[in-house]
Specification:
Metallo-beta-lactamase, Chain A, 7-stranded mixed beta sheet
Amino acid sequence: MKLTFLGTCAGTEPMPGRMHSSFVIERKGSLFWFDAGEGCSRTAHLLGIDALQTRAIFLTHRHIDHTGGLPLLVSTIRKLNDVAGQDPPPFTDKHVDLFCPEPNIWEATKFYLKDYKGGEILEHFEHKLPSDGVVFDEDGFRVIASRNYHLGEPEPGQPWPSFSYRIEADGKSVVYSGDIAAPEDVSPIVEGADLVLMETGHHTVEAIAEYMRDSVGSFGKLSYTHHGRAVLADPVGEFAKAQAILGADRAFLAEDEMSIDI
């Protein structure tokens, strides 16, 4: 599977060369999106990633730096379907599972697009609430959701508001923290991961590296993403801190448009 970072910035004001959080995994002709920050579909399209191959979208929580690009992602799929010039259009038999802890995000997206030309594309999407455990398992591609405490605990009867994800396929695994209250939030799913994506919007590079070194028995590489101002202001200096704790080859800073074969 191939992972491409579409946005690696936390919820700051616009930053040069950085969009808000999103990445996509390509595998066996299918696309799997994780978060949908601003511009994610534009970046993917300009990189040659075919949004018409979308099979599922996994959102970690409701904040706009993780969901602001969702209406445009759906609209981009509609537009690409229209201009493909195929009969029937390529998206005719497609179905997209959309995992989002906040139902109103999908309701708002439908409100934006329902009366827009091609609004019938919405019929191809099915909103699902994530919950702890396996939420997607198809053709050897499995996603496990694990609640975290970024948004605290919900009121009784309300859905859990924030999740991390573990992705497994072809004998490899990727863990994506999303936004978390503490590095320990990922402890139920992080062990043995080949690649761990951890956010720096709310935590220091050192705290994350020390957690991975001291509390995770085994893992492959650590990628910092969802960069906060400390990393954006001095990426070289911040990365040096991670290297000092984990070693030169165990960590890297994610960049927009960076691709990794896993």
